[in-house]
Amino acid sequence: MIYFFSAVVVTYLFWIILSGHYTVVLMIIGAISSISVVIIASRMAAIDREGHPIYLLIRAGWYWPWLIWQIIKSGLNVSRIILSRSLPISPTLINVKANQKTVVGIVTYANSITLTPGTISVEIEDRDITVHAITLEGALDVQSGEMDRMVVKFEGLSSA
Amino acid sequence: MEAIINLLSWLFLLSGGLFCITGMIGLIRFPDLFTRLHGASVTDTLGAGFIVIGLILQSGFTLVTAKLIIIMGLILLTSPVATHALAQAALHAGILPKLDNDETGGHIAGEDE
Asked: What is the Cα–Cα distance from B9 to B12, expressed in whole angstroms?
C-alpha cells in the first residue's frame, strides 16, 4: 500500500514538472490521471518493491555521484584510446560474479558496468555476468570487484 | 556573474560536442561490433551529459532544468539497456568478438556447458 501512495506522488510530481501550469483544472486532471495510471499499473502487479524501488532513492544520493565519477574517469580513458594514433586496445571477455541479493541489485550492477565506457555486460545468467572490456586493464578493474561491493552497499542489507 | 555562467556553460557545451565527435571517431576506427559499442557509449554518457549540464547552466533555476534532469536520467537508464540488448543479440546471432585475451575459459554465461 505504501508503494501505491509513493507511486501516485511520484507520477503526480512528474505531471506537474512536465505541465508547468498550476490552474485548478489541470491540477485536478493531473491527480485523476496519475491515480488511474497507478491503479492500472498495480493491476499489472508492477507496483511493488521490485517495480517501484523508491527505498533506493536515499542511497542513490551517494551511489550516483560515485557512478558519475567512474563514468567520467573511464570515459576520458576511452577517449584517449580513440584519439591516440596507435589505437592501443586489447579486447577482453571475462566472467565476473555478482554478489547482490535482489534482482534489482543485479540489474543495477550490470547496467552500471555497461554505463561506464570501456566495459559492456554482454550476458547474464543467475550470478554470472560476462563482460566485454576494451582493454585488459578495464577487465581486471571490473574483476577487482570495487563496483560490485558498492552496489551491494547500495541495495542495502534490508533486502531479505 | 552572468558572464561567468555563460562561459562555463559554453565550456560544457563545447566539451560535450567534442566527446560526441570522439565517440563517432571511435565508432569508425574500432575493428568490430563489440569494440564499436564502447565508442558509442562515450557519446551516450559524456557527450550527452556535458551538453545537458551546459544547457542547465543556460536555463538556471527553472522548470526547464527539472525537465533536463529528467531527460538525463532517461538517457542514463535506457542507454545501457539498449547497449546490452545489442551486444547480447549479436552474441546470440553468432557474431564472436575479436579478442586479445579470453579470460572466460570458453564459458559464456547463459550458455550450456
From this structure: 5
Q: Which residue of A has its CA nearest to B41?
A: A117
Complex ipTM value: 0.84
Ordered by start, the domain boundaries in chain A are 2-43, 57-155
In angstroms, the CA A79 to CA A102 distance is 34
CB contact under 8 A, B46 and A79: yes
Share of chain B above pLDDT 70, in %: 92
- The whole-angstrom separation of Cα A139 and Cα A116 is 12
Q: What is the distance between the alpha carbons of residues A143 and A138, in angstroms, rounded to a whole number?
A: 9
Which of 34-63 (B) contact A at CB < 8 A? 34-35, 37-39, 41-42, 45-46, 49, 63
How many CB pairs (< 8 A) connect A and B? 140
Buried b (16+ CB within 10 A) or exposed e, A50-66: eebbebeeeeeeebeee
Following DSSP, what letter does each residue of A110-130 receive, concatenated? HHHHHHSTTEEEEEEETTEEE
Please give the grid coordinates belonging to residue A52: 517501484
Global confidence as pTM? 0.86
